[in-house]
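Reviewers of the previous submission asked for a worked example of the structure-prediction workflow described in the proposal, so we include one complete record here. The input consisted solely of the amino acid sequence. No template or homolog information was supplied to the procedure at any stage.
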Amino acid sequence: MFDRFSESARRVMKHAREHALSYNHDEIRTEHILLGIAALGECGALTALAQIGIGAEDIRRALGNLPEGTGKVTNLPFSRLAKKALEATAEAAQGLGQATIGTPHLLLGLLSSPEGLASQTLRELGGMRAQIRPAVLRYLEQYGAE
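From that input alone, the workflow returned the following structure tokens.
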């Protein structure tokens, strides 16, 4: 699946892995992917979120105190919810007729798992699915998958 990811989306996944490792978590979760988006500084997902008043610093602050894990693994699997979000990411790109999966699609995928910490954090920051999805679609319409 990652072969369809844009360079920015691949960097998000690299950052997500690094965040999971830095917290000693034993799997990559939705919150790590959201932190990976925030780590880029500039990308389509953050541009879309900025339209509704959510910035990278807001995300980092909201997720900055994740509990420390006990994992000491280097080959991290994806959590059940992260897998579900990644599947939804690919479906979102396909449904929009886009061959490349970019950070806006990752954001849509994270929203598809409302029980995931990433989606909960976005809601706590004031980003409801009904606001984020149209902002992402506007971005994709204007700029594409990046």
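The chain has a mean pLDDT of 93. We consider this example representative of the routine output the project will generate in years two and three.
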